[in-house]
């Protein structure tokens, strides 16, 4: 089973303390991808992984990863200190849950406005920042 594996209310409105990734790679277009990502909230983390057989995102609430192959992700440092708002799991037209979107903030509109979208593709996670740029 893919998608959200726990009640989001357990982490909603908690501040992100750190973002860590496992096996970060720079793609040919300059973007980054990871085998897994973890947003630390207290003693636990929201951990995003990809199922190998379907390339779907799995989002779990687990203890903070402590292995040396998990490293801080500087590219997602803007999330640190922000509170987790709403989240969305998207299903593509073939029925696969391959996208997870996250809002960062504890009051509207920030808590409701998507900021980061994580996409599962080829057994790895990519991240797209949806934050509007000031003109």
Structural description of this entry:
- This protein has 135 residues and is mainly β.
- It has strands spanning 3-4, 18-22, 25-26, 32-34, 36-41, 44-50, 57-63, 70-72, 84-91, 97-104, 114-121, 124-129.
- The strands form 2 sheets. A 6-stranded mixed β-sheet has the order 1-7-6-5-2-8, with no helix packed on it. Strands 3-4-12-11-10-9 form a 6-stranded antiparallel β-sheet, with no helix packed on it.
- Strand 6 (44-50) and strand 7 (57-63) form a beta hairpin.
- The mean pLDDT is 91.
Which helices and strands occur, and which strands form pairs?
Blueprint: E1 3-4, E2 18-22, E3 25-26, E4 32-34, E5 36-41, E6 44-50, E7 57-63, E8 70-72, E9 84-91, E10 97-104, E11 114-121, E12 124-129
Parallel strand pairs: 1-7
Antiparallel strand pairs: 2-5, 2-8, 3-4, 4-12, 5-6, 6-7, 9-10, 10-11, 11-12
């Amino acid at each position: 089973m893919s998608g959200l594996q726990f009640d989001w209310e357990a982490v909603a409105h908690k501040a992100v303390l750190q973002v860590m990734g496992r096996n970060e790679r720079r793609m040919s277009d300059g973007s980054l991808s990871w085998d897994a990502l973890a947003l630390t909230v207290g003693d636990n983390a929201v951990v995003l992984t990809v199922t190998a057989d379907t390339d779907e995102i799995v989002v779990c609430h687990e203890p903070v990863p402590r292995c040396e192959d998990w490293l801080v992700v500087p590219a997602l440092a803007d999330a640190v200190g922000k509170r987790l708002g709403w989240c969305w799991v998207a299903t593509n037209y073939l029925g696969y849950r391959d996208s997870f979107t996250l809002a960062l903030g504890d009051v509207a509109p920030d808590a409701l406005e998507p900021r980061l979208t994580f996409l599962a593709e080829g057994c790895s996670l990519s991240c797209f920042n949806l934050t509007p740029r000031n003109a």
